[in-house]
Amino acid sequence: MVLFRAPPDAPVVAATSFTARGTPPPLAEPRALVGAFKEAQEPKKTAKSKKAKKAKIDKPAPDEVTDDDEATGGTAQATDTVEKPGPFVWKQHPSIRFGKAVRVEFEAKFQEDGRSSYSGGLANAGVDAWELHRNRVGVKGSVGKHIDFEVERELTEKELTERDVLVGLTPKSQWKDVDVNVDYVKNAQIQVGKFKIPFGLDELTGVTHNDFVYRSLGANYLAPARDVGGMVHGSFLKHRLQYAAGAFTHDGDNARSKKIQGGNETVAGRVTFRPLRRVSPALDTLEIGTAVALTALSDDSFRPNGLRGRTVITQDTFFKPVYVKGRRSRMEGDVDWTIGPASLRAEYTQVRDTRRNQSLTDGDLPDARYRSWYVSATWLLTGEHKRRPVKPKSDLFDRGVGAVELVGRIERVWFDSVGGTDEPFANSRAENILRVGDRAITMGVNWTLNRFVKLQFNAIRERIDDPDRNPVANGSAFWSRVVRLQFVL
Amino acid sequence: MLTARPHRFVALLAATTIVAGAAFVAGVRAATPAVAEFFDDSQVQTIDFTINSRDWQSLKDHYLDNDYYPCDFKWRDQVVRNVGIRSRGTGSRSGAKPGLRVDFDRFTTKQTFLGTLKSFILRNQTQDASNMHERIGMLLYQRLGVPAVRETYARVYVNNTYSGLYTIVESPDKAYLDRIYGDKDGHLYKYDYNAGDSPWFFQSIGDDPAQYVPHPFKPETHEDDPQPEFVRNFIRIASTDSDAVWRSNLASYIDWENFAKHIAVEAFIADQDGFNGDYGVNNFYWYRWTNKNLFSWIAWDKSEAFKSAPTQNVFHNVLEGDPARRNRLSARAMTLDDVRNMYLDALLALAASAGERDPAAPDDTRGWMEREIDRDYQQIRDLVYADSEKPFTNEEFEQAVESLRTFARIRPGSVVTQVNTFRRR
User: Fold this and answer.
1) Helix axis angle, B256-268 relative to B133-143, nearest 10°?
2) Which of A302, A358, A425 sits opposite B107 (nearest CB)?
3) Which residues contact B69 (CB under 8 A, 6 or more apart)?
4) Contact B70 A361 (CB under 8 A)
5) How confident is the model at residue B17 (pLDDT cuts 50, 70, 90)?
6) pLDDT at A415 exceeding the cut of 60
7) Chain A residue closest to B225 (CA)?
8) Contact A299 B224 (CB under 8 A)
9) Measured between beta carbons, which residues in chain A are less than 8 angstroms from residue B70?
10) What is the mean pLDDT of residues B287-310?
């Protein structure tokens, strides 16, 4: 991601890139940034190994944005860059460059999924066993030294988080990231357009960088995702402290559906910090983050405007939205740690919706509360250093087998209300919302064949803790399986 | 003796406990009214809903949608919380006076009212200015010995505001099936005619079961295993088999007496929108008995009855009327002598029942049907007048009741004449 520019003294390596477009860069993809800082701090210690690695690092993945030209004032020339006379260049992506003034890169992301779940589950969800889940194309680039832009569009929208799309309805917008970033002030860059609201470690991780086929339930249903707005972001303390804060017209795609209006004006802020950077190499990459988002909630819609809970693949709604009005408060805390070939992530999210005038007698109700957590871990069996995206030491059919990674995640999302003395009920105006949640365990293998192609295999076990709202009879747990073929250009 | 006394004491204590327990249980039972009291038509019932005011307005504003809204329900001293209501109906849908479906188990699985009712209907009578067609029609089914849903009038209050006169209609569901058939585990289908559907006159639809279920035959039980092939087989045999095998092949699917009585009541009440209706097949449920091919007809929605002339041909849309619009099954059934006689006998029985004089009032010249109309009129007149949401004027109500009285006076004689004339041919 070019939105955060590396400092002039940063090493000219792929690690200076930050994230895929559309996510608040350093916050979303801290690993790349961490690598840059680590090398800047210890330039001599690993000189040989750095040289050895450089050839690999200089082959960035297509979905990893490098910014070497800009970081060095346009003087860097990566060894693997296929330079041709004229404006056309193919480094990570096909791109057109007009000197140093204008750069336009073309990119594409394709994800084909094959799925299975409990009997009848996919049919109920209107989900095909095989489908082109994502088919995104876009351009990104820069104008001059200080203006970056990005436009990305879903050609065949198949987001599982939008069931209406799956049954053939047109989503509200197929535009994904459409934004401009201006960085005249490095520590206070300004981004405007449509992009992800700075909230949630998992949600802010780029779609092609995820360790799992599907994001966590909390990311999919509690975090806001993309919306139109403006944001200021930057970093301090040599990038140990990073921040992003913005205002948005609504509270993101995840809060909306064909039937759910979603929240209104939203302000959000996120801070990440690496407290132990100089304490120990093992703890160097430990990053903690937190975010807050506040949203105005109306009850203009005649349908409930709260958040919902759904199962991972089959999209069974085990918690239907409740009527809300007033304010939606989101908070999250997360930890992200990478050590050698392994990584560990954990995140806790809590959302509270006020419910003014929402009782059967038009009185106020206690806040609705939605919570989630997950802990995930990954291990690269082939020995690469963990980063997102993973880069194989040796590509398949190029003296290697690619990168093979084991991944696992345990998570829970659950819904209830804060207080309330009444008998708990499952209706949308219950004073005391009858608690329901989903407990999921995901296990899988990621096989990154080369910088373009990745295969992911996930097995997901879910159980809804209210048998009446469990899609499988008798409240039993159920398994789903998914394989994803990802191609990124 | 000394050792026997403790035994006597224990026995006495046990007996006392049993008697007290039985009395307590009996008392509890007595405190909970029976479902029959809810459908007691000797009085107008009173129903109260407590619902968020915006929900009630939304339900009216979006009366074409089927969104459920939570509410609390009260009848007498019985309060049921966590109940779902939604707008319902096809042609009767109204934003001013919405027809309502009341689901007790919408938000709480297995919640019932009075022990067995999972839901019921509040019919808004927006297509019947008299408010009586539905109830009188169902009563005629019952008087002929054909099971039908129970109905009674109700004054409905929403948030303590009178929201109109409604008719409580029993839901055809498992509890209903158990009550009328003693068999509830079969497959129940509602013929689900939607606006825009092509009228169907029981012609062949095709071999694909998906052309039958879930539309137009909407499964009401066993939704996960609706077994459409049985519906397909029945209709395919009924509409395509040759005369030589038609009856024998249908033998396991149809109870001819049930069928003949069902269409006889429709004919007697001149139902324009029933199985032999003017707009194609409509307004009935089919129940396929457990582990059998047998389908039984269950009558539904008689608001469009009694609107035609009381002299209407009893073979309307069967042997009379535009051939293209005649019901194929009914018309073909009339070629069977015994079935035709069942039909004609049922019509005569209905005529006799509707015109039956009150033995306790020899001077009263009114038949049962006219007396029932007058009784209903006395029950509901003031409530209809006070109903500001009804889509009719008070004058139209009076005219509709008078038309119904006229129908009641003329129809029995007309039917008897037609049947006798037909039989003399």
Assistant:
1) 140
2) A425
3) B51, B52, B55, B56, B58, B59, B84, B85, B86
4) no
5) low
6) yes
7) A120
8) no
9) 360, 425, 427-430
10) 96
This complex has an ipTM of: 0.79
Backbone angles phi, psi at B379, to 5 degrees: -65, -40
- Residues of chain B positioned with their CB less than 8 A from the CB of A368: none
Q: Which two tokens stand for residue B197?
A: 């559907």
Q: Is the CB of B70 less than 8 angstroms away from the CB of A360?
A: yes
For residues A216 and A309, the answer to whether their CB atoms sit within 8 Å is: no
**Closest Cβ–Cβ partner in B61, B82, B159 for A427:** B82
Nearest alpha-carbon partner for A195 in A400, A19, A428, A407:
A19
In a domain, residue B57? The reply is yes
Q: Is residue B19 part of a domain?
A: no
Structural domains in chain A plus CATH codes: 111-134+167-176+183-488 (2.40.160.10)
Residue B126: per-residue pLDDT: 95
Residue with tokens 């809903």: B49
Asked if A468's CB is within 8 angstroms of B109's CB, the reply is yes
pLDDT band per the 50, 70, 90 thresholds, residue A165:
very low
- Calculate how close chain B gets to A260, using CA atoms only, in Å: 13
Q: How many domains does chain B divide into? A: 1
With the CA atoms of A140, A109, A288 and A34 taken in that order, what torsion angle do they form, in degrees rounded to the nearest 10? Answer: -60
Inform me whether the pLDDT recorded for B266 exceeds 80.
yes
- B50, B61, B108 member nearest A360 (Cβ): B50
The answer to whether the Cβ–Cβ distance between A302 and B67 falls below 8 Å is yes
Tell me, yes or no, whether B387 lies in a domain.
no
pLDDT at A133: 84
- Average pLDDT estimate for B215-244: 94
Q: What is the dihedral of CA A88, A93, A97, A103, to 10 degrees?
A: 160
Give the single-character DSSP code of B208.
-
Q: Do A302 and B58 touch (CB under 8 A)?
A: yes
Q: Do B82 and A425 touch (CB under 8 A)?
A: yes
B128 to chain A, closest Cα gap in Å: 30
For residue B87, the enclosing domain spans 36-170
Residues of A with CB under 8 A from a CB of B: 120, 299, 302-303, 323, 357-362, 423, 425-430, 468
Q: Is the CB of B82 less than 8 angstroms away from the CB of A430? A: yes
CA atoms within 13 A on the CB side of B15: 6
pLDDT at B27: 46
- Range of weakest confidence among A31-45, A123-137, A395-409: A31-45
**Bridge-based pairing state of the strands A326-339 and A317-319:** unpaired
Residue tagged 């001819």 (tokens): B256
Peptide bond into B214 cis (omega under 30): yes
Q: Of the segments A36-50, A118-132, A464-478, B147-161, which one has the largest average pLDDT value?
A: B147-161
Quote the DSSP letter at residue A471. S
Q: How far apart are CA B72 and CA B81, in angstroms?
A: 4
* pLDDT of res. B22: 53
Q: Is residue B420 part of a domain?
A: no
- Those residues whose C-beta lies under 8 Å from the C-beta of residue A107, and which sit 6 or more positions away, are A62, A63, A92, A93, A137, A138, A139, A140, A152, A488, A489
pLDDT for A9 beyond 50:
no
Largest CA distance in chain B: 94
The pLDDT of residue A169 is 45
The residue among A16, A5, A34 whose CA lies nearest residue A276 is A34
Q: Hey, are the CB atoms on B84 and A427 less than 8 Å from each other?
A: yes
| Closest CA of chain A from B54, distance in Å | 8
What residue has token string 């397909």? B232
